[in-house]
Amino acid sequence: MVDFSEFMLRVLFSGACGLVVGLDREIKGKPLGAGAYVLVAIGSAALMVVTLNFALSGVAEDEAMTIDATRLIQGIVGGIGFLGAGAIMSPRDNGRLKGVRSGAAIWAVGSIGIACGLGYLKEAAFISILIFVVLNFFDWLHIRGNK
């Protein structure tokens, strides 16, 4: 079981990691504000911890009830996909889609929440930094290519 203080640590750390990515997108005026990134990270982490606690609590010992945490991961990833699609829905005049990187970033932030919820905080921090670097690198390439 994950005690409440560990629950808070995982969820708050997840939110901080989501904020790293979200602030970058917010400052640059990209689709989906910082709040969306933080909420996706926090929600994913909280769902993972609560599911783990439920599975380990013994409540699910009834043979009719089975718990598979990987199904929750699938649900989180699929659900965030709909949110990401919303960021991509507006096409540009030149026929290219707008918001694809933001859509991919919100999806990737879900993995941060999942990692934090499972207790992989170092991995989540690394994922956050990597997403930040990748987004900024491609923003830099885009700016450089338009000169």
From TrEMBL:
<feature type="transmembrane region" description="Helical">
    <location>
        <begin position="36"/>
        <end position="60"/>
    </location>
</feature>
<dbReference type="InterPro" id="IPR003416">
    <property type="entry name" value="MgtC/SapB/SrpB/YhiD_fam"/>
</dbReference>
<keyword id="KW-0812">Transmembrane</keyword>
<feature type="domain" description="MgtC/SapB/SrpB/YhiD N-terminal">
    <location>
        <begin position="13"/>
        <end position="142"/>
    </location>
</feature>
<feature type="transmembrane region" description="Helical">
    <location>
        <begin position="126"/>
        <end position="143"/>
    </location>
</feature>
<keyword id="KW-0472">Membrane</keyword>
<keyword id="KW-1133">Transmembrane helix</keyword>
<dbReference type="GO" id="GO:0005886">
    <property type="term" value="C:plasma membrane"/>
</dbReference>
<keyword id="KW-0997">Cell inner membrane</keyword>
<feature type="transmembrane region" description="Helical">
    <location>
        <begin position="72"/>
        <end position="90"/>
    </location>
</feature>
<comment type="similarity">
    <text>Belongs to the MgtC/SapB family.</text>
</comment>
<protein>
    <recommendedName>
        <fullName>Protein MgtC</fullName>
    </recommendedName>
</protein>
<dbReference type="InterPro" id="IPR049177">
    <property type="entry name" value="MgtC_SapB_SrpB_YhiD_N"/>
</dbReference>
<dbReference type="Pfam" id="PF02308">
    <property type="entry name" value="MgtC"/>
</dbReference>
<keyword id="KW-1003">Cell membrane</keyword>
<feature type="transmembrane region" description="Helical">
    <location>
        <begin position="102"/>
        <end position="120"/>
    </location>
</feature>
